[in-house]
Design brief:
The complex is a heterodimer of chains A (about 110) and B (about 120).
Chain A lengths: L3 E2 L4 E5 L4 E7 L6 E7 L6 E7 L4 E4 L2 E6 L4 E6 L8 E8 L5 E3 L3 E6 L1
Chain B lengths: L4 E3 L2 E4 L5 E6 L6 E7 L6 E7 L2 E5 L7 E4 L6 E5 L8 E8 L11 E2 L3 E5 L1
Parallel strand pairs in B: 2-11
Antiparallel strand pairs in B: 1-3, 3-8, 4-5, 4-9, 5-6, 7-8, 9-10, 9-11
Classes of the chains: A mainly beta (about 110), B mainly beta (about 120).
Chain lengths: ~110, ~120
């Protein structure tokens, strides 16, 4: 039972444009949603999060939007930079602090 | 360095052998997590601890897998009678859970890559 889904395995964007990564979830009990970025041969690193009681959180070039009724969240990166090229994982946390990850989306930002 | 450290970084073993991975979390973190990641997949939850107590173990995890966190500090993940399907990256992460919890951010180590021949 895949509780966190990322249906786009890969995404390619021109430098300077907006990157939009999508995530869907099935469990209404998640209380926090997080995005992680992963470079090859490294562990995932935290990027940005959003509480289930919010609908938007912004941090510099990164904004996460949450649509609870649709059980959908998205990460917007604007403007996209070549250094943003990485795999992005959507994750969801339960009230017991168990964190479930999606399968990831590989983002390529083309100079 | 005060991040999460994992040892060994790489392990090559023959099928049927036992392997053990160690994780040292960030010192003040009371939660410790183990995940497994294979190529093209996201981190798959294996188990997690609150101090020395194991809170949950994935039902996908066979009895060949066992994890401990004896004094609430470092943790070990042991795989007995390894199989080729166990080949993966084993990731450890820690966080501050409970009353000190904030966003639920996990801090990951660089992982231990297992290859079973």
């Amino acid at each position: 039972d895949q509780q966190v889904k990322q249906n786009s395995p890969s995404l390619s964007v021109q430098e300077g444009r907006i990157s939009i990564l999508n995530c869907d979830y099935t469990n209404s009990m998640f209380d926090y949603f997080l995005w992680y970025k992963k470079y090859p041969a490294e562990g995932p690193t935290f990027l940005i999060s959003i509480s289930s009681i919010k609908d938007k959180n912004e941090d510099g070039r990164f904004t996460v939007f949450l649509n609870k009724s649709a059980k959908h969240l998205s990460l917007h990166i604007v403007p996209s930079q070549p250094g943003d090229s990485a795999v992005y994982f959507c994750a969801a946390r339960t009230s017991y602090d168990k964190v479930i990850f999606g399968p990831g989306t590989s983002l390529s930002v083309i100079p | 360095d005060t991040g999460v450290s994992q040892d060994p970084r790489h392990k090559i073993t023959k099928r049927g052998q036992n392997v053990t991975f160690r994780c040292d979390p960030i010192s003040e973190h009371n939660r410790l997590y183990w995940y497994r990641q294979t190529l093209g997949q996201g981190p798959e939850f294996l188990t997690y601890f609150q101090n020395e107590a194991q809170l949950e173990k994935s039902r996908l995890l066979s009895d060949r897998f066992s994890a401990e966190r004896p004094k609430g500090s470092f943790s070990t993940l042991e795989i007995q009678r390894t199989e080729q399907g166990d080949s993966a990256m084993y990731l450890c992460a820690s966080s501050l859970g409970g009353q000190g919890r904030k966003t639920g951010e996990l801090f990951f180590g660089e992982g231990s890559r297992l290859t079973v021949l």
